[in-house]
Amino acid sequence: MSTLVFATNNKHKLREVREITGNSVIIRSLSDIELDAEIPEDQETIEGNARQKAMFIFSKTGMDCFADDTGLEIAALHGRPGVYSARYAGEGCDFADNIKKVLEEMNGIEDRRACFRCAICLIFRGNEYMFEGRVNGEITQSPSGADGFGYDPVFRPDNHSRTFAEMPAYLKNGLSHRGRAIQKMLRYLSELE
Description:
The protein has about 190 residues and is an alpha/beta fold.
């Protein structure tokens, strides 16, 4: 069974990834390997950020690792917030601030189409691989639900009546952009072993 370091300091992402991967791989956190580092994330694309984070951890540890980056892309906002999703309302903001900004910008707009995209960069046995997951949906008029994190309270995937924040974890993880990208990574790892 493979052991991978997940290059994140986000506890929500770590928990979600461990739920998605189950017993198929061993996921180690940065605290598990006693690495206390601020991971750089200043690229212009989500793929660039995922690669930058994975390469940073690999350069520090030499261990098999992966990193992800995610962007919410809203059609009426010309793809914003995109790569700036986590800091859309500005430096030091939280996701409540980001959601508020998105809903203010979407006020009065009928076209609510959006998609979540996730890029994962895996460094395994010294080689680099990239995987993408995406899910289409829409931005709701107001937040709904208490589970999940980030934009989950205002994102409703296509063909569903609930936002990600209203769904149980197993359902969200089966549909989500991150879940889809991780499943692609796991399938690829199973072929390599």
